[in-house]
């Protein structure tokens, strides 16, 4: 089985061909192809971690579309001072489908 650990959106993801992953927003339109930087490659029994060899490895993904993550509610409160603050956040995300690992 061939799989790779790639750096995508500030995190590392384990991917193989056909996987669908969700990463932080990528500046690309739906249907475009993006390349991800490989950190580790496992091809059967051989494991590649050498940076020089990994620079030749190509992990391609197709952009399926953009979406937003779940709402996170941030609340701050200080006792006896009347200070209350409420804020929400939804992360911008992109869904990718891994098409090939060379």
Outline:
It holds the Pfam family Ribosomal_L21p. With 102 residues, this protein is mainly beta. The protein has one helix at 51-54, and strands at 2-8, 11-15, 20-24, 33-43, 46-48, 59-68, 72-78, 83-89, 92-101.
Describe the structure in your own words.
The protein has 102 residues and is mainly beta. Helix content is 4%, strand content 64%. The chain is built from 1 helix and 9 strands, in the order βββββαββββ. Strands 1, 2, 3, 4, 5, 6 and 9 form a 7-stranded antiparallel beta sheet that branches. Strands 7-8 form a two-stranded antiparallel sheet. β1 and β2 (11-15) form a beta hairpin. It starts with a strand and ends with a strand. Keywords: Ribonucleoprotein, Ribosomal protein, RNA-binding, rRNA-binding. InterPro entries: bL21-like, bL21-like_sf, Ribosomal_bL21, Ribosomal_bL21_CS. This is Large ribosomal subunit protein bL21.
